[in-house]
Structures are given as C-alpha cells and as structure tokens.
C-alpha cells in the first residue's frame, strides 16, 4: 500500500503521520506541485491522498492549487480516502462546495480543541471525550461542506475538523506537528509576519509528548480506512 502527500512549501512534511504509516508497512511519496515543472502524479495508483498545510490561502489564484482541487475532485469521485490538514482541509472543503474565508482571529500556537457529540461515533475520534491541546497555525477557516459532519471546535475557530462521507477528513489543526517542525516554522521567512505579532515565542514542547500519542492513535485509525 502507498500514500501520496501534497506539499506546498519546502518546510512542510507529514511529521507524525510517518510513524503510523511505517508501522503498517505503508509507503509514502510526496508531490510538490508548487515547484515549477513538477510532474503531475497519477493519483489512481495510490491508496490514499494527504494534502498538507502551507503559508498561502486556499483562495489564492495559484495554478498548482487549482490543479490540486481538480485532483481532489477526481479522488472524491473515485472514492479514494482523503486527509487534509490546515490548507489541505481548506482545499478539500472548497472542492466539496464550501466557502473558505479569514477566521476572525489568527490561531497560532497551542489551543484546546473540543470534540462534538458526533465525534463519539466517528472512526477516528470515537474515544476522545476531554478537550485536547493541539497545535494551530492558520488565518483562514472553512465553512462546513454540505452534508459533512463537524467533529471538533475551538474557542477561536468553531470549525476544526470534519468528515465528509466515510473516507474524507479535514483537520484545521496540526495533529502531525513535531517540536522540530514548530521550531523550524518560526524561523521561516514566509511566517515572519505571523511570528512578529505573537505575544511570546511558541514553546515547541508544550504538549508534544501527549500529542505524539494522540497522533499515533488518530493517524493509525486513518490508515485503517485505506
């Protein structure tokens, strides 16, 4: 089995998704369509697709984002499992007919996520009851796609996770993040505007140990959909 992950910047990666894939013998490839002349992959040869985050908006008129939305629509029609994270979730939401727009505030750092009653019967989130401190870095958010199920919310952003049908998931939060990724993101030129307005540097290790356990559970369950 193999999974294809779409990156949108050189410093993006699957992070804590990788161990869940490796434990189950699932191989991983990357697609970097943001790079000039990058080859367009044949998504039909993959058992699942992951669309990662990035510093741009899902509404930006970028040709590679238009192409990714086309690929998402093809995957939906083919009933391929999809997982979108942050920007990736916004791209999937748009492909499903939902609006993506600025959130009232930028949500950057560690914030509590609460799970909806519908999450109690969800294949990925069923055992989660108490709020979880999860990492965030976004200024946009999505409206819930038509027919989708809302699974999680936070104080600053009511729409944090959705499931559309049995195989499509979107997470606004970064469940895949590692301490090294958080430290690196704060140094990137693309993020300097956001970092400059933070009240204090983000602690990469704030809830990292527990997040790794939670990520292994959730992403392990996602691989079961494959």
Give a short overview.
The chain is α/β, with parallel strands linked by helices. It has helices spanning 17-23, 63-77, 87-95, 179-185, 192-196, 208-224; strands at residues 2-6, 27-31, 48-51, 82-85, 100-115, 132-142, 149-153, 161-164, 168-171.
- Poorly predicted runs: none
> What summary fits the major beta sheet?
9 strands, mixed
**CATH-level-4 superfamily name:** Class I glutamine amidotransferase (GATase) domain
Q: How many distinct beta strands?
A: 9
Total domain count:
1
Shape: globular
Measure the end-to-end span. Answer: 8 Å
CATH topology: Rossmann fold
Q: By helix and strand content, what is the structural category?
A: alpha/beta
**CATH-derived architecture:** 3-Layer(aba) Sandwich
If you average the pLDDT, what whole number results?
96
Percentage of residues in helical conformation:
25-40%
Radius of gyration: 16 Å
CATH class: Alpha Beta
**How many helices in DSSP terms?**
6
Strand proportion: 25-35%
- What is the ordering of alpha helices and beta strands? EHEEHEHEEEEEHHH
Strand order of the largest sheet: 2-1-3-4-9-8-7-5-6
Tell me what you see in this structure:
The chain is an alpha/beta fold and 226 residues long. It has helices spanning 17-23, 63-77, 87-95, 179-185, 192-196, 208-224, and strands at residues 2-6, 27-31, 48-51, 82-85, 100-115, 132-142, 149-153, 161-164, 168-171. It has six helices and nine strands; from the N terminus they run βαββαβαβββββααα. A hairpin with a 3-residue loop joins strand 8 (161-164) and strand 9 (168-171). Helix 1 (17-23) crosses helix 6 (208-224) and helix 2 (63-77) packs across helix 3. The protein is globular and about 45 Å long.
């Amino acid at each position: 089995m193999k999974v294809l992950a779409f990156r949108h910047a050189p410093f993006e990666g699957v992070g804590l998704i990788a161990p869940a894939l490796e434990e189950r013998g699932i191989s991983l490839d990357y697609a970097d369509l943001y790079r000039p002349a990058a080859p367009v992959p044949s998504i039909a040869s993959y058992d699942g697709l992951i669309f990662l985050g990035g510093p741009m908006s899902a509404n930006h008129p970028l040709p590679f984002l238009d192409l990714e939305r086309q690929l998402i629509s093809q995957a939906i029609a083919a009933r391929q499992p999809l997982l979108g994270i942050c920007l990736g979730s916004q791209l999937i939401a748009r492909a499903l007919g939902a609006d993506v727009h600025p959130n009232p505030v930028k949500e950057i750092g560690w914030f509590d996520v609460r799970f909806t009653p519908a999450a109690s019967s969800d294949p990925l989130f069923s055992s989660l009851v108490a709020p979880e401190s999860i990492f965030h870095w976004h200024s946009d958010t999505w409206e819930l796609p038509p027919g989708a199920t809302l699974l999680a919310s936070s104080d600053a952003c009511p729409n944090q996770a959705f499931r559309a049908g049995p195989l499509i998931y979107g997470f606004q939060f970064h469940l895949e993040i590692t301490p090294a990724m958080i430290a690196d993101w704060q140094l990137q030129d693309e993020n300097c505007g956001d970092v400059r307005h933070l009240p204090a540097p983000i602690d990469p290790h704030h809830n990292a140990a527990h997040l790794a356990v939670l990520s292994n559970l959730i992403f392990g369950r996602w691989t079961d959909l494959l």
